[in-house]
Specification:
Distance between the termini: 28 Å
Largest sheet: 7 strands, mixed
Helix content: 10-25%
Strand content: 15-25%
Number of domains: 3
Number of helices: 14
Oligomer: single chain
CATH superfamily of the largest domain: Medium-chain alcohol dehydrogenases, catalytic domain
Structural class: alpha/beta
CATH topology of the largest domain: Quinone Oxidoreductase, Chain A, domain 1
Number of strands: 20
């Protein structure tokens, strides 16, 4: 494309530091404020002064108000993010721009942003990582406004996957488009968007059939890709300042401009669609009885989705009281499995009857009765939820399993669990004529509809959000979320 927005963002008002964003386009020069010029931002000088810079190229002739690339032109643009002391004079600003331009010309420039980086079991850090770039004409770059910590991030955080140190976390991302590739047709700079956690191409066999969680293109050799997740492709996570979004026309869901419904919309990246997916897998219908194992974010969304779909009774099973209280607040019937076997509790409440449908929103790290709720400290029985679902559900019922199960668990309780091989009562499942549905959510099947429920006021999933914290506080947020303390139920990071 001929022009791309770049800006000098808020150097004034950030104390002694700010962000300098530099770029170029394939026009050799044009007046400030036109073409790809960004008409805002300043060094804090009075309007109209030379120091009130409207736009900076890789080499800007500020005195003449023109933009001239300083070194080799790129086909589209080069993106730079760095911190620097606020320039106090025009000459110092030009000197700093020239320094950066020369460094990049020599391959010595630092193109970085802040991001949450996995260090090893129970350890993350906020570090400087490479700034994302448009690598394909179908890409966009999104400036993150909200990125959530997900319960599935904790599997990596606790060392229960094959994740290697250095991975940037974050698959629940939303923000505002800042750069647009030349082949993008339906999106523009400034559009507010949320991205499904699963990356899809839009044209493979699975994507065309709506199974975008199992795309055959974005992660060669595997069906499915995601941002910032182990074994899910090269896509860098969005617990950061910016993110590259491939196949952007397909993967970006447009949102109303502004900041309304920010928390609600951020949940469209994963947990609201995933909770709804659990209800869809179980084919929850009006008037039915449902039991949902887990009152974490996905479990609460599954409970909420069952209620939206008209279920008459929804039992929500957990042992963290704050979470059970939230389930009760939205109309669920809380069941604390530390008090006793949840199957027996529910049958007692129902005069011996089971339920029509069951949903597993826990997955392979299911905790034993009386166990600690803290990650790394709980006693696990990885097959307990599956077998309790089979015990409770009535004959011909349907089990929905959106909870995560993996084929390799380094911290598994036994050799079978380490291979993802769990013992379940298949004989009882067969005898009852049960059906089950599994697999990660195909977010694009649901996200536009759920967005419109939010806009219409008929769904408010943000009730699950307990904390919004700065990106720089991610280390503490991960620790508390993993330990299930201080009411940490769902955390949104703000860069």
């Amino acid at each position: 494309m001929a022009g791309t927005n770049r800006d000098l963002m808020g150097l004034a008002g950030r104390g002694q530091a700010g962000h300098l964003r530099l770029g170029t386009c394939n026009e050799y020069r044009h007046p400030v404020g036109q073409g790809c010029c960004w008409p805002g931002g300043s060094f804090g000088a009075s309007p109209g002064s030379e120091l009130n810079v409207r736009w900076l190229g890789l080499r800007s002739d500020l005195r003449n108000g023109e933009v001239r690339p300083h070194f080799g032109m790129q086909p589209c643009w080069i993106r730079v993010l760095t911190r620097l002391p606020q320039p106090d004079t025009l000459d110092s600003a030009i000197k700093e721009i020239d320094r950066l331009g020369s460094a990049f010309q020599e391959g010595k420039g630092e193109v970085t942003m802040r991001a949450v980086v996995y260090q090893g079991p129970f350890s993350v850090a906020v570090e400087e990582v490479p700034d994302p770039e448009i690598k394909h004409p179908n890409d966009v770059i999104v400036k993150i406004t909200s990125s959530c910590i997900c319960g599935s991030d904790l599997h990596m955080y606790e060392g229960r996957t094959a994740a290697e140190p250095g991975i940037v976390f974050g698959h629940e991302n939303m923000g505002v488009i800042e750069d647009v590739g030349s082949a993008v047709k339906t999106l523009s700079v400034g559009d507010r968007v949320v991205m499904p956690f699963n990356v899809g191409c839009g044209f493979c066999k699975n994507c065309q059939r709506g199974f975008t969680g199992f795309c055959l293109t974005v992660n060669p050799g595997f069906a499915g890709g995601a941002y910032g997740y182990v074994a899910m492709g090269p896509w860098v996570g969005g617990q950061a300042e910016y993110i590259q979004v491939p196949y952007a026309d397909f993967n970006c869901l447009p949102l109303p401009s502004g900041d309304a419904f920010e928390w609600d919309f951020s949940l469209l990246a994963d947990i609201f669609p995933t909770g709804y997916h659990g209800a869809e897998l179980a084919d929850v219908s009006p008037g039915e009885s449902v039991a949902v194992w887990g009152a974490g974010p996905v479990g609460l969304m599954a409970t909420y989705s069952c209620i939206i779909r008209g279920a008459a009774e929804v039992y929500t099973i957990d042992h963290v009281q704050e979470r059970l209280d939230m389930a009760s607040d939205i109309g669920g019937i809380p069941i604390n499995f530390d008090v006793g076997n949840p199957v027996e509790q529910i049958r007692d409440m129902r005069g011996g009857d089971g339920v029509d449908k069951t949903i597993d929103a826990v997955g392979y790290q299911a905790a034993a009765q009386g166990s600690s709720a803290a990650g790394g400290e709980q006693t696990e029985i990885p097959n307990v939820v599956l077998n309790q679902m089979i015990d409770l559900i009535n004959p011909t019922g349907i089990m929905g399993i959106p909870g995560l199960y993996v084929p390799s668990d380094p911290g598994g309780v036994d050799e079978g669990a380490k291979r993802g091989s769990l013992a379940i009562n298949f004989g009882k499942l067969f005898e009852k004529g049960l059906k089950l549905g599994t697999g990660q959510c195909n977010v694009k099947q649901y996200n536009a509809y759920l967005r419109d429920l939010i806009i219409s006021g008929k769904a408010t999933p943000s009730f699950v959000v307990s904390h919004e914290v700065p990106l720089d506080d991610a280390v503490d947020a991960y620790d508390k979320f993993d330990k299930r303390i201080d009411g940490y139920t769902k955390v949104i990071l703000k860069p």
